[in-house]
Amino acid sequence: ATAFYMYLGQIVPQREAHPPPPVLISAEMTTEDLVAVGAELASGKGQCLVGCHTVGQSGPLRYPDLDGIGARAATQIEGLSGLEYLAQSLYEPAAFIVPGFADGMQPIDQPPISLSEDEMKAVIAWLQSLGGTPTVTLDTELGY
């Protein structure tokens, strides 16, 4: 049995995982820069945003399609602005589950993803840009 596992260990490709490179966010960034960083984070360090959600025609349909979320966000929960809804969806994803989908998304400001507050703002800017106009800035208070 030991020889089999030694053999198996030799034929299975070994992959060394490395954390994604740090994303530099600075106060001098324009809204467009923030959106670009948010898109990069969503497909890199943010993992599940484009790994579990679709964006238009691409991606798996495990969680709701994000295409147009920038316009839809303000109408999802009565009493919450689009910005507040998007922040809540990232910090407290179980607070509102879109009908037809299961709970299961983890807060992305906590391990294993652990986005910083500025990274969260960049992701929100990217989400707002999907069918809407980004309003979040690095000075925006998210309330979390």
Mind sketching the topology for me?
Elements: H1 2-11, H2 31-43, H3 48-52, H4 69-76, H5 82-91, H6 117-129
Mean pLDDT: 88
Write down the Rg. Answer: 18 Å
Described by the principal axes of the CA atoms, the overall outline is: globular
CATH architecture of the domain at 31-129: Orthogonal Bundle
**Estimated share of beta-strand residues:** under 5%
Low-confidence stretches: none
* Largest sheet properties: none
User: Element order, helices and strands?
Assistant: HHHHHH
- Ends apart, CA distance between termini: 52 Å
| Portion of residues within helices | 40-55%
Word description of this protein:
This protein is an all-alpha fold and 144 residues long. It has a domain of 99 residues: Cytochrome c-like domain (Cytochrome Bc1 Complex, Chain D, domain 2, Orthogonal Bundle). It contains six helices and no strands. The longest helix is centred in the first third of the chain and has 13 residues. The radius of gyration is 18 Å and the shape is globular. The N and C termini lie far apart (52 Å). The relative contact order is 0.19.
